[in-house]
């Protein structure tokens, strides 16, 4: 009798688990037709293909373009769209020939992150030319250059990247290329050092409300800056092995952030340019980054689906109408350097079609399609 009871208890537990997984997926099923990830992903990807390059300093491919390109490629993979993969590859291959001068140099966190893109093409094509292009961007992030400053040397002496700045943007820029290097080579050193770096940023910058100041001397919760942290933590959680000693701390920081973002979400489903200021304007790039991180959390089981699934769904449905008839995401805050002036953040110009907004919307389409 004892074994029969145990058998039926096991069956019930199994059925409950199956139902729980199904419930997780339901939050992202039956979306309004205009919010279909396939529809949105196609619109944004095809908008990207013929677009002009966005250049850092007028010279090299800008990180925002990299993020958009990377998002379109991940979407194409998830959607099984081989034609789109080829279009994105053809655009990239010009960087080996007529547009080679646009390849970023390797001396700044915003430039080194370029390496994530050829490493993703390596994953898709298994062509080693992409591996050979991408890996130096990951390696030089931890190779102290000649003429390094005392501050850069101090970071390196701690086992961190010499490009460490304690700006929250860094925690996508550094982690994405290191995670990609790990996937390309299987070498733990890449993901382990990225996880260690993230923990330093969490310990130094995360506030009790789960959010992050734009910089230690700028006490404002700028949406896109916080979005980089949210997306960076999601990327690391996707990639970091469970036996990594820093994974638990990253998950703790991620969950604290998601908990408070849930509370700061507006009735419309969006988050504001300054996340904790109800009188500030809804901003799309930060909102899309939060949505991406939250969708992934629900899909991967890092977050309770019943609690966070409706939040992420509401956010996605709120975001899609910001895509105009030309395929440009509107209400995107322009590039923003830190400034210790509250009004500065309220007054930042808003634009349409900026890659800072196009990119995280594409990330969301990938997240919605992945298992």
From TrEMBL:
Pfam families: Glyco_hydro_88
Transmembrane segments: none
Membrane in keyword set: no
Active site feature: 110, 169
Keyword tags: Hydrolase, Signal
Molecular function in Gene Ontology: hydrolase activity
Residues that bind substrate: 110, 169
Signal peptide bounds: 1-23
GO biological process, one term: carbohydrate metabolic process
Name the record gives this protein: Glycoside hydrolase family 88 protein
Origin species: Parabacteroides acidifaciens
């Amino acid at each position: 009798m004892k074994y029969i009871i145990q058998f039926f208890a096991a069956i019930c537990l199994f059925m409950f688990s199956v139902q729980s997984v199904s419930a997780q997926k339901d939050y992202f099923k039956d979306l309004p037709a205009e919010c279909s990830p396939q529809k949105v992903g196609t619109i944004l990807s095809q908008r990207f293909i013929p677009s002009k390059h966005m250049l850092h300093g007028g010279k090299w491919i800008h990180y925002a373009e990299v993020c958009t390109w990377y998002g379109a490629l991940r979407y194409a993979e998830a959607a099984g769209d081989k034609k789109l993969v080829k279009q994105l590859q053809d655009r990239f291959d010009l960087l080996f020939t007529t547009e080679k001068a646009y390849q970023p140099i390797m001396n700044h966190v915003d430039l080194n992150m370029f390496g994530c893109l050829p490493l993703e093409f390596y994953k898709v094509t298994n062509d080693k030319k992409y591996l050979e292009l991408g890996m130096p961007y990951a390696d030089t992030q931890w190779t102290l250059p000649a003429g390094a400053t005392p501050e850069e040397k101090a970071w390196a002496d701690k086992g961190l990247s010499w490009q460490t700045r304690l700006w929250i943007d860094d925690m996508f820029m550094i982690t994405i290329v290191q995670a990609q290097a790990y996937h390309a080579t299987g070498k733990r050193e890449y993901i382990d050092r990225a996880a260690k770096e993230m923990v330093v940023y969490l310990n130094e910058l995360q506030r009790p409300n789960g959010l992050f100041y734009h910089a230690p001397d700028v006490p404002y919760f700028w949406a896109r800056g916080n979005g980089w942290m949210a997306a960076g933590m999601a990327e690391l959680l996707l990639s970091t092995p469970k036996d990594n000693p820093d994974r638990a701390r990253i998950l703790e920081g991620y969950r604290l952030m998601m908990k408070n973002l849930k509370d700061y979400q507006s009735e419309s489903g969006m988050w504001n340019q300054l996340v904790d200021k109800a009188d500030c304007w809804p901003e799309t790039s930060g909102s899309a980054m939060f949505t991406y991180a939250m969708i992934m959390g629900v899909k991967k089981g890092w977050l309770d689906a019943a609690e966070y699934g409706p939040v992420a769904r509401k956010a996605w449905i709120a975001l899609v109408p910001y895509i105009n008839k030309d395929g440009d995401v509107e209400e995107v805050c322009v590039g923003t350097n830190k400034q210790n002036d509250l009004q500065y953040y309220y007054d930042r110009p808003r634009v349409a079609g900026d890659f800072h907004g196009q990119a995280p919307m594409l990330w969301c389409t990938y997240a919605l399609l992945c298992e």
